[in-house]
Amino acid sequence: MNINKDQLQDINNKNATAHNEHFDFLGNQLSKKGNDVQKIVDRLSDFQVAIPSWALGAGGTRFGRFGFQGEPSNLEQKIEDIGLIHSLTQTAGAVSLHIPWDVPNDYNAIKELAAANDILFDAVNSNTFQDQKNAAESYKFGSLSNTSQAVREQAIAHNIDVINIGNKLGSKSLTVWLADGSSFPGQNNFQTALQNTQNSLKDIYASLPDDWKLFIEYKPYEPNFYSTVIQDWGTSFMLANECGDKAYTLVDLGHHLPNTNIEQIVSTLMLKGKLGGFHFNDSKYGDDDLTVGSIKPYSLFLIFNELVYGMENNSQNPYPAWMIDASHNIKDPLEDIIQSLEAIQEAYAKALLIDQNALRQAQSENDVVKCQEILQGAYRTDVRPLLERARLNRGGALSPIDAYRALQVREHLIEQRGVNAVASGL
Predict the structure, then answer these.
(1) Domains, the chain, ordered by start
(2) Alpha carbon distance, N-terminus to C-terminus of the chain
(3) What integer is the mean pLDDT of 249-255?
């Protein structure tokens, strides 16, 4: 399915008057406070978030998955779905492939299809948390950390294969997330597991092209519930330093224990020049992988405050790679991604409104009340007209969800693919 620009324009025209009124009112208010409204809109227009190839199908739980009709059954259809999202939001300009779930059959054809949908290839993701068909070795007791050299070598070889696949597509980074750990006390020697992981990552790092990055993800628990080898940002940071200048920590919002101060972690990593990437989701209890901003929108805003500060003041840190990493459970996956993109843009826009100079001054004077007023003043601002204008300037929809439903996108996908289509890789 392709979204007709004329149809989208007709839908936008129905709300154009209300949008212009809201935008003009907000713009005038922000300008009086010294904000460069056009600059903010431009930054929102430029902000792009990668969509993982596995996220276009229904999510689920450890106990079951409830399919959603019209799911994409191959990589081509996944890229087409991202293209639909990008047409509406103008924010989903990249795809992050998960290997071996989404290995292209025809690299040139896939690159042409992505280009036709204005989609770039972001980080490629390896998979050593599942046993693969016809694999000689099992990852039941770990991969890069395994006590078996044969298992470690298989996992290293897989990551190198993923690098080669990404290189053919124009990707520039590899994300490594390990499920390695132990389920019971005494199962692993912690030092041996960590040392094996470090040596394995160094072997993978040695195969990186010169212009690539290695992103090392961390997680405190699950699927192993006694220990995880890379359990926190400090371990990831340490391993990245051991690997070299092209290795970075990747922060996933759900990969923290409850009430962890994620914004402080983000700030520290940017100060040290080691924040490489960011996976967006939300949670109530743990790694729930819920829609971004659905549970803790203020926390997301505080994280973006640190990201905005770091991007402006920490030149030693590269521009981070952004990706959504969520499980949609019972929602239409495409609608869920659209909602996540809106929440990300909203948090970013509010962070851009913070008067950083005034905040620094209040901090230097230990004016705690003033600091809170500055942050919450920005947070309480309804920035949705700014997001609408950013999308409109790029040819997107004023209201992506409304346009998605008005154009009956899901119904068209079901008609094309059938009610029993199942997303590949899940």
Answers:
(1) 49-349 (3.20.20.150)
(2) 23
(3) 97
| pLDDT mean across residues, the chain | 96
What pTM value is reported for the model?
0.96
Q: What is the mean pLDDT of residues 80-106?
A: 97
> What does the pLDDT average to over 69-79?
95
For residue 391, what pLDDT is reported? 98
CB–CB of 286/255 below 8 Å? no
Confidence label for 62 from pLDDT (cuts 50, 70 and 90): low
Give the pair of three-digit tokens for residue 310. 């770091």
Does pLDDT of 132 surpass 60?
A: yes
Q: Residue 237 corresponds to which tokens in the numbers above?
A: 């940071």
Cβ(338)–Cβ(404) below 8 Å: yes
The Cα–Cα gap between 52 and 337 comes to 10
Distance separating alpha carbons of residues 181 and 425, to the nearest angstrom: 23
The amino acid sitting at 22 is: H
Give me the pLDDT at residue 376, please.
98
